[in-house]
Amino acid sequence: MIDESDPNTRLGEHEHPWLLAYSVALTVNGRPYRLTVDPRTSLLDLLREHLQLTGTKKGCDHGQCGACTVLVNGRRITSCLTLAVMHDGDDILTIEGLGSQDNLHPLQAAFIERDAFQCGYCTPGQICSAVGMLAEAGAGWPSHVTADVGIEQVELTRTEIRERMSGNICRCAAYPNIIAAIRDVSEGTAQ
Amino acid sequence: MRSFTYERVLDPGTACAAAATRPDSKFICGGTNLIDLMRLEIERPAHLIDISRLPLTAIEELPQGQLRIGA
């Protein structure tokens, strides 16, 4: 929490709000961090500029492309449209925390197997989004195309995956292979 | 984006009191609209009140068949 009596919290005076800085403690990929940030810092810029975790990409910086998608307490969000100060106490998972070169996350392996990218810029966001999406579907959340919103277990058809992944744009249009990779994992048929 | 002060509130009463004392403030929760507008300086709040942690998450059934949806 923000403690205004803490000298580290308020570097400037009230009449100089551009000098404000706030202390934020959060966990990123299992590691605890405490940082002092300008309140305008987005979570995306905290990850890329302060922690040098550049796996999370900045595409549009307007929440429209999904390249910056990360998981906050297990839920997917666009990290460009949320302030770092709002995540004091939160648990952040980025593409770097999902898997390593020697130990790929099943979705990472499926994206490679299915050739689910060309340039790869949207891929970290696509994969983080898919992790969040599979958890949502597993919890029974309906989507805009779910015919019966009362159903407990949604079948992740191509149409469902398309709709649920619609917040992640791929300029190379690798969509057919992205959907195939996600289906492999959701159906348990990944290599 | 212009700078601002920030506070996180944990209950609705504190949120209302904070907004009452700061007419130049805005509530923020998800931020998907406000942050975009602040970047373009269409919105220029001097203070942000973060209501994302308010415990208004339940859907309650009321006696006369109505639902109250926390948001």
Give a description of the structure.
The complex is a heterodimer of chains A (191) and B (71). Chain A has 191 residues and is of the alpha+beta class. Helices cover 29% and strands 13% of the residues of chain A. Chain A is built from six helices and five strands. Chain A has helices spanning 43-50, 95-98, 106-113, 123-138, 158-164, 175-186; strands spanning 22-28, 31-37, 69-72, 75-78, 91-93. Chain A has a five-stranded mixed beta sheet, sandwiched between helices. In chain A, β3 (69-72) and β4 (75-78) form a beta hairpin. The longest helix of chain A has 16 residues, at 123-138. Chain A is globular. Chain B is α/β, with parallel strands linked by helices and 71 residues long. Helix content of chain B is 23%, strand content 25%. Chain B has two helices and five strands; from the N terminus they run βαβαβββ. Chain B has helices at 12-21, 34-39; strands at 5-8, 25-28, 47-50, 59-61, 67-69. In chain B, the strands form two sheets. Chain B has a three-stranded parallel beta sheet with strand order 1-3-2, with helices on one face. In chain B, strands 4-5 form a two-stranded antiparallel ribbon. The A-B interface holds A 1-2, 17-18, 20, 22, 38-40, 42, 61-63, 78, 81-83, 85-86, 88 and B 1, 3-8, 28, 30-32, 35-36, 39, 46, 48, 50, 52.
Looking at this protein, list some descriptive labels.
heterodimer, A: 191 residues, alpha+beta, five-stranded mixed beta sheet, B: 71 residues, alpha/beta, three-stranded parallel beta sheet, two-stranded antiparallel ribbon
